[in-house]
Amino acid sequence: MPNQINDDIKFNLLDIDRDTGIGGTELEETALKLSILHTDENNNKLITRSDLTALFEAHFKGREYSHTFRLPKWLETCDVPWCNVLRDFYKDPVTRPASLSPQQGEFIRSLIVNFNPKTVVEIGVFLGVSTLWVAGALEDANQNGKLYSLGLFKDILPKPPTRTKCVIDPYSDVSTRIKDAGLEDIVTLIKGDSKLLGSNWKNYSSDPIDVLFIDGDCTIPGCLGDFEAFREHLNEESIIVLRDIFPENCSCDGPRYLIDMLNKIGNIQIFELETSPHNFGMAVIKLKKRAKSRNSVLE
After folding, report:
1. What is the C-alpha to C-alpha distance for residues 124 and 150, in angstroms, rounded to an integer?
2. Is residue 216 a contact partner of residue 225, using CB atoms and an 8 Å limit?
3. Phi, psi for 284 (deg, rounded to 5)
4. 82 and 163 belong to one structural domain
5. How do residues 114-133 score in pLDDT, each as one tens digit?
6. Domain range for residue 219?
7. pLDDT at 61 exceeding the cut of 50
8. Which pLDDT tens digit goes with each residue over 69-87?
């Protein structure tokens, strides 16, 4: 479904059915009960964008995804603003299971605090959970590090049975949480296609990227495209972080493909990590020093 900024835009129930896997008849019945169903001149059943939240809340009432993340004890008691925001957000079922888990978050936080990067680029924001973890770590490191978080920020629709909520205008939601966390001086949100942004990255920052967190389009073309778009902006000490590296557990094949491709080239140091609670996995990659002339991994 295209990302719209106009709340009066109407979406066809058939398109919603396609994007969510929910039967159009079921949604039509719910929409009729709420009196939010519209019909155009071609008898297409339509829902106004501003009514989507009410539609899905009513449709899934009593059937919300019950799994909860287990928070580390220090996060449960931490009174730092970004921890408070993160802890409260983890209570929202929409974060589960696709967002960065608390255990994955602890790993990337430790990585950031110890590596102490000046510039971090995060590709793929989704709901902004990983953004809070990385930016919070940069704040804790206290070295004036900056995080650039890139995303399309499309409306997020339910994906039952695990995600039964929708998020309309996630850019505004993420921006609000960053401000509430006191991290607005650290985080720059950039809306756009990451491949295009990478090809023009000097327009956004002249500093080399110390940590590149690829967590957006997890298809093979998407993951390789992100790597190629930003590779030239890395320095010799840079590290790359990947998530969802075990396709058998997460249905994402791009990160594993990139790892295997780089392993074949033999120009890589890599650490792979099994993660909890769902073993989607994470990887930390360091490219070895390369010659000035290089071949694309896509060739």
Report:
1. 6
2. no
3. -115, 125
4. yes
5. 999 999 999 999 999 999 99
6. 73-287
7. yes
8. 999 999 999 999 999 999 9
